[in-house]
Amino acid sequence: MIDPGDKDPLVRGVRLRGDRHRRWLREGEPSVAHRLAQIGVLGWIIVVPMLIGILVGRWLDQRFGTGLFWTAPLLLAGTALGGWSAWKWMKSA
User: Fold this and answer.
1) pTM across the whole model
2) How confident is the model at residue 6 (pLDDT cuts 50, 70, 90)?
3) Positive or negative: CA dihedral 28, 31, 36, 37
4) Do residues 37 and 54 touch, judged by C-beta distance below 8 A?
């Protein structure tokens, strides 16, 4: 039987918070190395799509001789994709 509270965002948030608290009680505080690793992963999640956008944009600009016509929008698209990916990763952690 489906619990009617499963669709309520407040109930889901409270359950998630409780699950995180129980996990913290079970596992304890993460180490400094673990926190630094999380920061490193987060940085790569944001930077890699930006770099791909720049590389593809520069290649397109050189191919068509358009200056920064493709580089700038693809950099912004990479930034948006990286930010969205980082947000999803942080929300799931």
Assistant:
1) 0.71
2) confident
3) negative
4) no
